[in-house]
Each structure stands twice: as C-alpha cells, then as structure tokens.
User: Fold these one by one.
Assistant:
Number 1:
Amino acid sequence: MRFPKSTSLVADRYKMDQAPKSITDWASKDGAFKRAPSQFRNVISKQSGAEFPPEKDRYHLYVSYACPWAHRTLIVRKLKGLEDIIPYTSVHWEMLEKGWRFARPDEKLPGDNVTPDPIHENMTHLRDIYFKVDPDYSGRFTVPTLYDLKQGKIVSNEGEFEKSSDIIRMFYTEFDDILPEKYKTVDLFPKHLRQDIEGVNDWTYNDINNGVYKTGFAQTQDAYEKAIQPLFSSLDRAEAHLAEHAAPYYFGKDITEADVRLFTTIIRFDPVYVQHFKCNIRDVRSGYPELHKWLRHLYWEVPAFGKTTEFEHIKKHYTKSHKQINPASITPVGPVPDIMPKDQEIPAAAAISRSTKQ
C-alpha cells in the first residue's frame, strides 16, 4: 500500500471524496439515532504469534476527556497500573467538521497530556492518523483509538459506537505478565460475576450509555419520547439495584466493569445530558439518591475515576461542538458545583432523605 506524501494531500483527498457528516446523519428515517459500527477491531493478545503482543511503550492511546467511551479506557488504564506501559494523548474538546483536533502548542487546557500529537509531527487532527494508516478509510474518526507505533497500525477504535468493550478488556488481562503483582490481581470482570455483568451491560448500554444519545440526537418528537422513557426506566432500575446491593460498588465490595461503564455516563448526566440532551425528567443529585451516593464515592474516593474526569472538556465539547443542537455554542454555567461534595446533599434531596428515615 502506497501512502500519500503528506497529511495535506490526505485532507485534500478527503474533501474531494467525502462530504462531512454530522452526528445527526446517523439518524434513521423515523428520526431515531443509530450508531455506526467501528472499523478497526483488532486485539492485543499475549498468545504466541499474536500480531499485536503486549509490550511496554509499543501502543499509544488517543482519547478525549469529553467522551464517555474514551473515559472508561483511562479509568481502566489507571486501575490496572498501565500508566507506565501505555502512554496517551487527549485531543482538544472541540470536534467540528474535521472531527477531533489536537491542542495547539499555545493552548493550555486542563487535564494531563492535552497536547499536539507527540507521535506524528504536524498532524492537526485525529483523522490524519486514520488516513495515514489507510488512505481509503471511509469511516468515522473516533476515540478511543489504540495505535501500534511499531507497525504504524490502528489496533482498535472500538468504543464510541459499540456495546462491546474490546479495549478495556484487553487492558484487564493481556498485560498482566509485565505488571507488578498488585495490579495483576485487579479483576474487573471476575468469573463468578460475568453473567451478571453481561446482563447489566446489555440494558445499561442500550438504555443509558447510548440512551442519552438516542434522546439528545432524536430528530422527531416521537423518536425523542421513545428514547427518553427507557432511559429513565433503566436509571430507576440502576437506582433500585444500588439500594439493595451497593457496598459500596455496583456488585459489592470490589469495583467491576459495571461500575466503569455506568460511571462515565452518570458523571456527565447533571452537567450536560439534563439540559443539552433534554434528559430532564429528573437529575441525579435530586432524583436518584443511591446513584448519587455511588457516583460521589467513586469520584471522590477512587483516583482512577475522579482524576480522569475533566468537567471543562465535558461541558464545552457537547455545548460547543454540537452546533445542530446548540447553534450559539452557549455553555450553561450550572449546575454548580459540577459534582456535589461526598457528604453534602442539595436541600430538597436532604429533606427527602430525612423524611424517609423518620
């Protein structure tokens, strides 16, 4: 395969061959939002002869702090002690016609590693990497993207459009042979809970993770109402489960994949999804006391969750990149604060809590 000589040629080819797509172009005829499948679905494996074996500093992870699917890879990377094995770069929060862009050298944004691309000099957008790998690429330019420096290939861009968990599950086990013992024993997908976790994953993804997008990007009133009802029914379901089982995590005393996958949507719910995606039947802080308690425990007590959450990226990305929803790009100030302190409730929720205990 012969590659173009420069990324500018790649960009020119893209302009000639493809019309830019907005997220709402993935709506069906009835106005319902439909996700497109990812196109790179390779795996890192410690099996002998694998094309992508686990090696220190061989892979680079591209993420956005704004994206919930990318966020979960950062959480698992930290939980599994992969910080010295898999470096990462976060793109800028802005995603316009050319997709995710890298921060410029003169831009100072919150969060670690929000920089120009450290691997490919002069590449300004994530899509430039996709076209370098495959000049005929016709899919979307998504995060997370896991890139193999040795072969110059994209291992996987699974995540933003999938119910599956390819990248985080690679992180669970495939690097264990080169990890310190304390991280080898971190098991986010234990055998005795796998059936339960997979069962929860199914409705959590369809109705909550993807449900907020189906609600927010609906193109008709009917599609919106059809999406919002299962969203809140499943939030009610999660609330009931946590009221009975959380101690303090979704399945008891240990963090599992279920916590990771749900957290990245719930942490964005009040700051963004309530207003931007019109998910406004209830918010978490006043309408879901068990979810609120679970959320704050993870954020304030577990660094892998709190230290990888960047509210500026989250709020500005959605409100300033989705022009079809918010043409003026106005970012609401509230809610204040973005997340409540661990032991503090808003007055209305505190009053309800007191009344139920009497």
Number 2:
Amino acid sequence: MYFLADYYNMTVHHFKLPHVPEGRDYMLEINPYMKNPSTEDRNNKIDARWIDTETGQFIDITSLRPNHTAREEGVEGALMCKDNHHYLETDIFPLRDTIFADTPCKVPYEYAAVLEEEYGKESLTKDVYEKFIFLPF
C-alpha cells in the first residue's frame, strides 16, 4: 500500500471491458491516514478506494497488517485489518487463481472459511443478502 500511495495515488486507469466497448476509467484513491494502523479511529477503517469515475461506485480497500499483539502471544502468522478483522497468513496465502465476470483474479486460499466467518454459512449459497441480489454469470 505504501508503494501505491507513493506512486499511484489519484491515478486514473482505463480498462477495456467485454460489456463496455468504450471501456471504463477507474481512479485509485489512497487515504492519507492509511499509514496509521490504529483500530481506535472508527472513521478511518478504509485505506484506499477503487472508484468507477463514471458511476461513482467504488470498492473499499483495507490493508492486511501483521497483528503484533497476537504474534507476541504466540499466534504465528496473525494478520489484521483496521476494521478489526483477523486472519492467519494460511487463510490468505497462497492466493488462488479464479475467474470473476470473465476476468482472471486472485482470491484468498481459504476463501470459503473467510466468507463463512464474515457472513455466515449461507453466504456461499444464498443469492440474496440484505438488499443485494447476486445473479449467476
């Protein structure tokens, strides 16, 4: 994240998409407080945003950091985010290759366990969550 902040903050990236012939622009915005690892500031949980410049929709990005407290207590490979989510390195790495919306991407190694812990067991099979409807591609 430090590299992205130093060299790519507020940069716009153009992507050609199969369903958008003219392509789409996305801006990477890095929070200037991303270097502060504190979980105390409830308004400072997001480290960056990937923003669709046409629609304004965005994806929040939170950085994984070593969880020094847990590691000092003997939890090997403990990680955390500023939003108080906790993981082990083996939950995340090695990343798995997959396809999402006809686009190659990477997902956490234990993606099913991570999703179940965050959203419940039904999160892997339900196609409705709160007000969102997920359609198959």
Number 3:
Amino acid sequence: MDPSRRVFIGVTGTGGVGRAFIEQLRALNVRRSQQFYSSLQLSIVLLARRSKILYSEDFRTLSLDNWEADLNASHSKLLSLTELEEYLAKVPGKAIWVDNTSDQKVAEAYPAFLRRGISIVTPNKKAFSGSYELWQDIFATASKLGSGKIFHESSVGAGLPVISTLKELVETGDEIHKIEGVFSGTMSFLFNSFAPVDGKGGKFSDEVKKAKRLGYTEPDPRDDLNGLDVARKLTILARLSGLVVQSPTSFPVQSLIPKPLEDAKSGEEFLEKLGDYDEDIEKLKQEAIAEGKVVRFVGSIDVAMKSVKVGLEKFDKTHPIAALKGSDNIISFYTKRYGANPLIIQGAGAGSEVTAMGVTGDLLKILQSME
C-alpha cells in the first residue's frame, strides 16, 4: 500500500479509559476492514503504560487479540517522551498518538509532537487547563501547515459532545453569553442523593461515604470535593469561548472540604471525621428547601462579565439542573442565537466506556481529515 495511505497509531495509558479505547479500536479496525470505501490502513504499532511498553521496531502492526497479555509479557525498554516522539516521527506514513494518561509532564510534550506532524487525541484535561502559555503553544503549533492536529472532546463531559458543540457555535459566529451546568458525575450523584427534589436525603457525610462505596468518588474523596476537577473543565470551556483564563485556580472555586480536614492523613481519616462538619451544609440545604429550591454544585462562565466560578448554588425544583438523575452531567449554552432557551447537553459525564467513545470519535475525525 502507498505509505501515504497508512496511519500508524501509538497508544499510551491502558487503565480504565485506555483499556476501553483499545477494545473500541479493535472493533473499529474490524468494521473498517469490511468497508471497501475506506482508503486508509490503520496500524497499531505501540501500546504503553507507566511500567510496560510493547512496540514494533519495524512498524509492523501489533495484534490486539491478546494485547493485555502481550503487554504484560513484554520486556522492551521503556521509551522517554523524546524517544517516543522520535519513534512516531519515523513511521513510514502518518502518525497519531492517542494519550489516555492524565500526566502533566506528558501534556507538556504535546507541542513537540505536533511540530513533528504527529496528530494527538487525548482526554487529558491537564493539557488544556494548565498554564495559558501551554494552551497557546498547543493550538498555535497545531494551526501551522505541516503540524499534527489535536482533538480533546473527552477532556470535558466524557463522551458528551460538549467541546465540539461549543467550537461549532463559536466558529459559525454565534455569540456565547453564558455556560452553566453540572460538570462532575461525582458531584451530580452526591447532591442528587443529599438534596433530592422531594426534600429528603441523608446527612452529607453519609452520602459521601455512599458515593465512595459505590465507586463514584476518587479513592480520596477530597480529590472530588475540592472542586478542582470542575474548575479544570470550566477553564477549558472559558478559553474556547474566548476568555483568557490563566489557570483553574485563577477564579473562585468553592471547596467542600472542611478546613480542619484539609490536612487529614488519609481518605479514611477524612471520611471518619467528616460527620463532625455536617451542620453548615445541612443548614444551606434547609434554607434551599424553605425557598422551594435545591442546592447543587455547579460551574458557570459569564463571558460578557469575563467571570468564571465553581461552587454551590440554589435552583428552583423545576430547573433542569435540579431535575438531574444519578450521575448525569448537564451543560447549558446561553447564546445570541438560542436566546432565552439554552442549548442543553445532558447525559453520562463519566465512565470508561463513554470517555473512550469520545476518544474514538476524535480519532475518527482525524482519520476523516486524512481520507
């Protein structure tokens, strides 16, 4: 086959999202082989995680039938980021790097890969919510002739079409007035349980423990309750809306971690003592009930006012944010074209399968641009 019609794919990160992506990639390869109109041949040549790497030195396609066992059995020397860049830059065709990690140092290497013509697909939100200088470097590089392309749909909302929708609104000339929503599956589940519209719900500390037990929180729930994950997503959307946001800590972010527990030695110690601080958030919940409202943990971007904030707010029980179920996300775009009725995107905003779907969708976008 003509080398220009071959696409070589390297994958880093084989955890929950990475594993789901590789399985989707395997199924995609099968479907494409049955489609006579597909003119590109995909070759998966590298799989890597923090402690293992499996790659083809002569760029022959790796089999994905038993990829996990093959990776575990590999004794190949790990590649540095510079060595990975060199490897992908030398493929006899076009190269795509699918980075399923959440590593900051890896994210900082994106511009170097793009300059070599290597396209990137990633759910790594740290690349797009870190320093504003890195954001500028990534997209300035990707815009140059001969550089690789970069897509990051799953950096906000997992597989929900949040970023692609916002980009289309902006690029078609709509005017973004405000973006508001529930951007965390963890916080959605937690507050739908703690402050449901029927006014019931248990103690906040008990609901946090339940959320952890059911697998909705990080191993240390403080990593969810500090609001930083939501702040990172808001940073990305604000930048795409045209705001210069320096970092996720450059605007108000309300942490739900009681001050005395910020230095708890472990997640277990934190949960053990959290019940001692239920009073303040319970008071806020009761105030909302008295007003016929519910309390929710939301993020909002006011483009005209150039303001971004993350924290607790009260909503009427009839508001779409109040009516969320389970761990769903909801994002509302208030724009000039849509007027008083926002464009609303709602659905599962977390989970390996749906996040990987967003990554796979981005891979398809790059492939379509190469066809």
